[in-house]
């Protein structure tokens, strides 16, 4: 019993201790729950306060955003008005400039028509010149054939006379006398024909001068439109030299410079002339080289393309021509041969075909021989 009482007492004490512990734990849990509730309540109140602050701030932000949108809209509206005013001003300026543009288009159309007319005129002139050259070439061939026939007849006559007079000295002296007479008569005949031929050449050259003057003025206007000032100055210098040469030609008087004892080469064929004609052909090549050099130099300074045939000096090719003992087309042929070589040296700033010395241009002797092939006959 004693042990049972002790056991019961122990159980009671344990029960009391466990109950007290449970009570303490419960009270601790209630204290902690209360703290958590208070913390949660404070957090909820803080969140509510934040939400309230945000709700209070939204109208101010919305008002500020609205003001910013209003300002942007005002700026866009002002920009649109300014753009509209600028377009209106440009339209007004274009409308005011419209008559000037129409006039400019009309001038361009007129200039295009004038260029077309000039081109047509140049083409017709070239065709006419080609026909004239062909006619002169045909006349030259006919004259050469006549001269060959005369020479052949004279040789045949001389052969017959020599055969008939071979037997005796007296008859031989008679034959010599007749031969001298024939030679004198032939020289007189050729001298009369030479003089008549030279006068015809001079007359034709003077009559052709007016036509070349008209073409020159057309080219002058074209160069002015193209703003090729250096080529225009060269063309003016060339024209001045040709005019001075015309004055010299008017004072020139016919003189007999002897028989045709020089031979020159052209296109694989040989032609004959006298000492004066030979000197004129040499001068044509030299003068052509000098004119070509200056024309090529002018085109290079103007920034224009390489085109010697377009230069007026090449197309005219009459500077230095005297109209005696040499046809104009012959002179122009050799003038242009020198011109092309001089143009290349001037355009590329070199001295391949000639040189400049003592204020004048001259073609190299080897080139002159190559182009002309001049030979002295017995």
What this model shows, in words?
- It is a single chain.
- This protein has helices at residues 2-164, 169-226, 229-250, 275-302, 312-316, 328-347, 365-372, and strands spanning 262-266, 269-273, 354-357, 360-363, 375-376.
- The chain has 378 residues and is mostly helical.
- The strands form 2 sheets. It has a 3-stranded antiparallel sheet with strand order 2-1-5.
- A hairpin with a 2-residue loop joins strand 1 (262-266) and strand 2.
- Helix 1 packs antiparallel against helix 2 (169-226), helix 3 runs antiparallel to helix 4 and helix 4 (275-302) runs parallel beside helix 6 (328-347).
**Alpha-beta classification:** mainly alpha
Overall morphology = rod-shaped
Radius of gyration based on Cα positions: 56 Å
What series of H and E elements makes up the topology?
A: HHHEEHHHEEHE
Terminal-residue CA separation: 187 Å
Largest beta-sheet details:
3 strands, antiparallel
Share of helix, binned: over 70%
Residue share in β-strands: 5-15%
Got a strand count?
A: 5
Low-confidence stretches: 165-192
């Amino acid at each position: 019993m004693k042990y049972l009482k002790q056991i019961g007492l122990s159980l009671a004490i344990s029960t009391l201790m466990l109950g007290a512990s449970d009570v303490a734990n419960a009270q601790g849990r209630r204290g902690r729950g209360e703290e958590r509730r208070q913390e949660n309540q404070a957090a909820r109140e803080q969140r509510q306060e934040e939400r309230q602050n945000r709700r209070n701030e939204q109208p101010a932000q919305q008002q500020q955003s609205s003001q910013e949108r209003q300002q942007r809209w005002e700026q866009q509206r002002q920009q649109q008005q300014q753009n509209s005013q600028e377009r209106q001003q440009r339209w007004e300026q274009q409308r005011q400039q419209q008559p000037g543009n129409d006039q400019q288009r009309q001038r361009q159309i007129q200039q295009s028509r004038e260029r077309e007319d000039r081109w047509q005129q140049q083409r017709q002139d070239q065709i006419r010149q080609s026909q004239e050259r062909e006619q002169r070439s045909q006349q030259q061939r006919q004259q050469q054939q006549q001269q060959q026939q005369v020479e052949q007849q004279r040789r045949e006559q001389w052969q017959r006379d020599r055969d008939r007079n071979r037997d005796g000295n007296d008859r031989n002296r008679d034959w010599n006398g007749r031969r001298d007479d024939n030679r004198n008569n032939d020289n007189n005949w050729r001298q009369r024909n030479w003089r008549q031929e030279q006068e015809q050449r001079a007359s034709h050259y003077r009559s052709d001068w007016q036509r070349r003057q008209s073409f020159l003025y057309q080219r002058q206007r074209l160069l002015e439109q193209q703003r090729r000032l250096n080529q225009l100055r060269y063309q003016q210098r060339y024209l001045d030299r040709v005019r001075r040469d015309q004055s010299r030609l008017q004072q020139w008087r016919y003189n007999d410079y002897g028989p045709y004892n020089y031979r020159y080469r052209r296109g694989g064929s040989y032609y004959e002339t006298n000492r004066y004609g030979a000197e004129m052909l040499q001068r044509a090549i030299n003068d052509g080289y000098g004119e070509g050099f200056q024309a090529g130099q002018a085109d290079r300074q103007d920034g224009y393309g390489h085109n010697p045939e377009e230069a007026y000096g090449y197309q005219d090719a009459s500077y230095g021509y005297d109209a005696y003992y040499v046809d104009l087309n012959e002179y122009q042929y050799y003038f242009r041969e020198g011109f092309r070589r001089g143009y290349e040296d001037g355009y590329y700033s070199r001295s391949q075909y000639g040189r400049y010395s003592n204020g004048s241009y001259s073609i190299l002797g080897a080139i002159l021989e190559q182009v002309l092939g001049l030979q002295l006959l017995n």
